[in-house]
């Protein structure tokens, strides 16, 4: 036996891999509920790393850092499932310098889909070429009773698990105009999205984002959508009739808006094609829970060349993901903008 062990060491072969013990809290989560996975033995020295496959298409890793030494090793990772089902969680890597692996079977229970509405983009900001963007929102009570609703501010470029919200009451059959809604209701400048929380079937809403000039305004309709209208994992959407000239003195520029309406991280997969079908480039954009972002001059992330006619193919993951997307195509000379809605590709029969 001693000779066998010595031989294995000489050949650089581990005598035994480390079994990782993995537990989940809560042990049976619901969709949208954050799960903490704890594993043992922990990541405890330089070079240690454990990679997790959560079974829904998402992955994560725990790597050695100096902070690990302060807590007796790093041993936890968090994940939020966006779909119900049975998932096999796999972990593999190195701990204490040795190969390690483990697994856990996890059941995630469903939750009702909220009735929330989403204004995909709103603004109170000065933009490129001296544009001056503002957004008006109109909310309509469609019932014969007074209705209550909340506006929740989803700030740009960050997770919005605990957004600032403001409550309103609207008499029966009436409509309220929230003029310059970001600044008037929240004192907020820049760009953001809004969530409208109300009982199912109680309110409808619409909006206009416009370039406010001394001589008047001109702008674009921006839709307010429910979760049933979001792009789902496994679906493909397209944004058509896009154009971009990096010179900004002629032609058009294209901005891309993305909104994650879920309590988990969603990855938007973007593929850029010329009008003749030639692939220009690809981009993956991670969105934190309830994050809104607008990628200005988005084509410049994959090429520095002007493209007069291109389109975007959009998909999202992991399992259970939802995504809103739009494009704003702006005339570089006048600042006039149109909103291009995402169109879902019909499922192949």
UniProtKB/TrEMBL annotation:
<dbReference type="InterPro" id="IPR000601">
    <property type="entry name" value="PKD_dom"/>
</dbReference>
<feature type="signal peptide">
    <location>
        <begin position="1"/>
        <end position="17"/>
    </location>
</feature>
<dbReference type="InterPro" id="IPR013783">
    <property type="entry name" value="Ig-like_fold"/>
</dbReference>
<dbReference type="Pfam" id="PF00801">
    <property type="entry name" value="PKD"/>
</dbReference>
<feature type="domain" description="PKD">
    <location>
        <begin position="20"/>
        <end position="108"/>
    </location>
</feature>
<protein>
    <recommendedName>
        <fullName>PKD domain-containing protein</fullName>
    </recommendedName>
</protein>
<keyword id="KW-0732">Signal</keyword>
<dbReference type="InterPro" id="IPR035986">
    <property type="entry name" value="PKD_dom_sf"/>
</dbReference>
